[in-house]
Amino acid sequence: MENWTEGLYKVGGKFVERIAIRTPVWDGRKVGIANFRARRADIIEVKVKYRLKKADKELLPKVLTIPAAKVRTYPVKVVGGGTKVHMVPIADMEEVC
Question: Which of 19, 44, 84, 85 is deepest in the core (most CB within 10 A)?
Fold first, then answer.
């Protein structure tokens, strides 16, 4: 998906929040999705931008998706600056492409 850009989009009557994750949480293979992003969208799409240095390729080249309502069921962790993020296991997300 070459033209993939972060942001909030309306697709087919639903709001889709596209989020780029620079580094996943290695303990438990999770990504942190900010609470405010999960509240304003119907669907969350995630692209993990982390690159493997030795192979010079992305760790997860596919876009992952999960319903925002499901994201809001995961535990919340407060990170730098007081931002609340839902810790979502990558295994619970579906690959889009």
Answer: 44
